[in-house]
From TrEMBL:
Xref: InterPro entries: HAD-like_SerB, HAD-like_sf, HAD_sf, PSP
A cellular component annotation (GO) from this entry: cytoplasm
Signal peptide start and end residues: none
Active site annotation, chain numbering: D11 (nucleophile), D13 (proton donor)
CDD domains in the cross-refs: HAD_PSP
Similarity comment text for this entry: Belongs to the HAD-like hydrolase superfamily. SerB family.
Reactions that this protein is recorded to catalyse: O-phospho-L-serine + H2O = L-serine + phosphate; O-phospho-D-serine + H2O = D-serine + phosphate
Species the sequence originates in: Streptococcus pantholopis
Protein name: phosphoserine phosphatase
């Protein structure tokens, strides 16, 4: 069995994909502006993520679960995303996704991209409709950082062998916990505090940073 040489964990919305999934759900439900405004404040670090998520999910109460499949064609991988994952696998890295979004869409994206691990939120659905509530543990900044640590431990890796990529305030703790933390087309609060940054929408540039670090 090949020894795992590293682990990269990344955020999904506005990182792996170009869109914010919950904003698309909001648009499909006719609540676009309301939901997007809460998303933006949470990303900037102005609102507690858990509270902001609960508020947005509550607004979706009574919507049909068909919205989740309706938005799938409107989710697009960020340029370089699939090439990055393929290259990391060639280098014997594992790749994980940690998302404040929802398993219902994130699992399908992970499958398409060939990702090894996924952690996301789960919407409560009853009789084909969203209840406005979530099930189980909420993916907060602490959970994102904890997942990075547990997946590293599972593969007998030290934190110095881990890489984290994200764009919002909810990713900051994970970026600081990883050996290499990369702010990707990130909000100002994240750009200021991350060790590395990519300001161009090309995820393959993560490889340039890894090559530089390992030189």
């Amino acid at each position: 069995m090949t020894k795992v040489k590293g682990l990269l964990v990344m955020d999904v919305d506005s990182t792996l994909i170009q869109e914010e999934g919950i904003d698309l759900l909001g648009q499909a439900a006719g609540l676009g502006e309301k939901i997007a405004a809460i998303t933006e404040r949470a990303m900037q670090g102005e609102l507690d993520f858990k509270q902001a998520l609960a508020e947005r999910v509550a607004l979706l109460k009574g919507q049909p679960d068909s919205l989740l499949t309706e938005i799938l064609p409107r989710l697009h991988f960020t340029p370089g995303a699939e090439a990055l994952i393929a290259e990391l696998h060639k280098r014997d890295y594992k790749v994980g996704l940690v998302s404040g979004g929802f398993h219902e869409t994130v699992d399908l994206l992970a499958q398409r991209a060939g990702v090894d691990y996924v952690m996301a939120n789960r919407l409560e659905i009853k009789d084909g409709f969203l209840t406005g509530r979530l099930l189980g543990e909420i993916v907060t900044k602490d959970i994102k950082a904890a997942k990075l640590c547990s997946w590293a431990a599972e593969n007998k890796l030290t934190l110095s062998q881990t890489v984290a990529v994200g764009d919002g305030a909810n990713d900051l703790l994970m970026l600081k916990t990883a050996g290499v933390g990369i702010a990707f087309c990130a909000k100002p609060i994240v750009r200021e505090q991350a060790s590395y940054r990519i300001d161009e929408a090309d995820l393959y540039k993560v490889i340039d940073i890894l090559d530089e670090v390992n030189r």
